[in-house]
Amino acid sequence: MDLPIIYHPNYVVPLPEGHRFPMPKFSQLQQLLLTDKVATPEQFHTPEPPPTNWIELVHTPEYVQAYREGTLDSKAQRRIGLPWSPALVNRTCTAVGGTILTAQLALKYGLACNTAGGTHHAFPSYGSGFCIFNDLAISARVLQQLGLAQKILILDLDVHQGDGTAFIFQDDSSVFTFSMHCEVNFPGTKQKSDLDIPLPVGMDDDAYLQTLAKYLPDLLSEIQPDLILYDAGVDPHASDRLGKLALTDTGIYRREMQVLTTCVAAGYPVASVIGGGYAEDLDALIYRHSLLHRAASVVYKQYRL
Fold first, then answer.
1. H or E element, residue 80
2. Is 28 helix (H, G, I), strand (E, B) or coil?
3. How many CB atoms neighbour CB 123 within 10 A?
């Protein structure tokens, strides 16, 4: 079998005029992977929304019901930053199902990639920063409940701290949260991950990759996880309008190769999600997200998974 990739149908989500959140990128990412022959149609798996009780392993029933029914108050809706619609509810739940499926396939094949996911700012009772339900946390809980994995490492390299994920697992030794993020960036109030690595504004490729290399191998040896959930946000890129770091496309690709090679060579299965990315140029952003899948395809073949 070739590298498993989770594809998300491009639900039509109406946004106010001038809204800048790049909703079409999920299906366009799939198309780019096909056009560039990074993947074939047979590699893609389409997820289903998970049952409500799986979402409620992390989120309060009151919040889940209010969001799904569109009855959140205006303050809670503004905190999320996206206008509510039934289509967005469907996309949100399907994205959670996609990360769960990615994790299941990673355990089976050693490596799997999502074309969405990484909603790490969602807390148990509210959403924040374009994040509604925390797909990483839900996936960890579901796999534990199903008995498929017990010790899980959430490796978060999005430029923003994974504050919701850190909060959810703050008293849970079975899930280790690692966040390497720009120190002067959203969220204004940081939570305490098991290991936080705050980075200075403007950090470039070499300094970033050296910092990552300083921590990742030892972290794997210490944690010895059954599964790694990898948030491969591309917002550390120099042109990202919400990033404040200075990585290049080459740096992002080197990061993906470094993470995946280090983890897979040590025998740890990796489920990857694309995380954040907020560039003005949508085509450039989609290419940047594709670097995860390009690197994963190389690593998958190199290690004959």
1. helix 74-80
2. helix
3. 22
Please tell me the predicted confidence (pLDDT) of residue 23.
53
Class at the top of the CATH hierarchy for domain 20-302? alpha beta
DSSP per-residue string spanning 159-218? SS--HHHHHHTTT-TTEEEEEEEESSSS-SS----SEEEEE-TT--HHHHHHHHHHHHHH
Instruction: Tell me the three state secondary structure of residue 224.
Output: coil
CA torsion, ordered 229, 254, 179, 189, to nearest 10 deg: -130
Q: Where are the domains of the chain?
A: 20-302
Angle between helices 249-265 and 282-302 (to 10 degrees): 30
Distance CA 123, CA 263 (A): 28
Longest dimension (CA), the chain: 51
Q: Which range has the worst mean pLDDT, 11-20, 84-93, 162-171, 261-270?
A: 11-20
* Listed residue (229, 253, 213, 127) closest to 178, CA to CA: 229
pLDDT tens-digit readout, 36-81: 999 999 999 999 999 999 999 999 999 999 999 999 999 999 999 9
d(CA 73, CA 53): 23
Answer yes or no: pTM beyond 0.70: yes
Secondary structure letter of residue 274 according to DSSP? -
Annotated active-site residue in 59, 120, 121, 237: 121
289 is catalytic: no
pLDDT, average across residues 274-286 = 93
